[in-house]
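Pasting as-is:
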Amino acid sequence: MIAMASLVASALLAAAPAIDAEIRAVAALAGEPRIVSAAGVTRDEASILTIENTTAFDPADTRRRVVLIGAPGTDDRAVVDVVRWFKTRAPRAVRQRWTLSALPVARFEPADTQSLSRWITFQAPDLIVTVGSIPVPPSAPVESVAATNIAAAFQKLLAAPRERSALHAALVSRVQREPIAIARLLAPRYPEAPGISYIPAVAWAQTLRVAEIAGDESLREKVHRQTRPWLTGEQKLFGDRVQLTAVAGTLIFADLAAAGNAAAAPLLDEGAALAAAEKAPAVPEYGQGWTDDMFMATAVLARSGARPGHERDLDVAARLLTGYSARLQQSSGLFNHAANGPAAWGRGNGFAALGLVEALTRMPAAHAARAKLLEIYRRQMAAVKAQQAPDGMWRQIIDEPGAYREETATAMLMSAMARGVRLGWLDASYRPAIERAWRGLAAHVADDGTLVDVCSGTGAGPTRRYYFDRPAVTGADDRGGAMALLAAVEMYELGKTSPAPAPR
């Protein structure tokens, strides 16, 4: 059970820039916690800074976890001073038994009822301590302690015996599952709403991989059953209005055709023709101009182009990827979502990364565009790796520490990175980032296959605020389930490989 203690402090409220500087200074001291991150943003998009460690989802870490939070209106420096005490003067026995994460000033907007709860939950706390009064998740019981000496009161709390909280135990249990176990959890469940769109198709394609790995014929039969209406011609692939998200759904017919289903090949041909249609060079006829298109078109074209006699489809995919990269890739290596979407949206970067790896996976070594696509991909992966959150997740806006840590961005980017290491495009220095991302993702997949914090459907938005405020789904979700299934299979495949040689 999580214990909650309230420590009361009073002092003048300092300006945010001043306390932010002190937060960074205390984080720079030797020892843990040492990573400056954020739990949310203010209305003017200033990050609400935190000081964190990287062990929230580490099963090997047996220490108890304490979360320290400062309420607005109290002394901004109170929490920072406690962190300094913990790192420099706390008894060795305390540091051996406890690990600390801190949110010095919880200055959330009144309408923001989720950010604090999200942050606390995925710090996996065994004890929560507040300086001043602040609402906390209702599952946390309250233990009030009044003190004039915050550090002394804090030390007293840490001296008391503490069992691992139910929340901490549950998260560790999730993380300890093997990738194939999570894949076998998700594959029978998703998609819950079959249709010709990229989301069901990704789930079906990965379910076929799980069926092969596990020797589970029931999973293969599930895919055939759910795709039968289109394979038999009972249902048309597309309605009157063609959308590239639907065209991407035909990727499953490439996989079925490769497995010997003769009825699937004409459906792949239909999808590939639409994916290859251009209204201008590198501008898909049915695309939106978003990074989404980099995956939606390429997932079909790369599969089609791998067939003898269809090599032109790979050429079209390469032209699309290089054209979009020229328009949308930042100098940092991250991708803006769109020309009129000025943010490095998490899932948008996932679409770019997966589009690149889909092409590279099937592209001959001698293809004229391969070196350029590898360069684009490696720049993005280096930038993504540098922006990973302390718990291993990637965020709704990749380079904004206060954006929420999002399930699909983590699953997609981890998948693209894992395949790159497995196939030798990236070196072994990326493995720790992949492993941390996997643990973060696994913590967001419940034992019943539901997900936590899946960004809802998102078109291009005109401001960064638009992306900050996109709602997140917690529960059953076809999009989140499909991408987590992909990540589980890629993590399983990576686990079978030895560290790669130098990138090629």
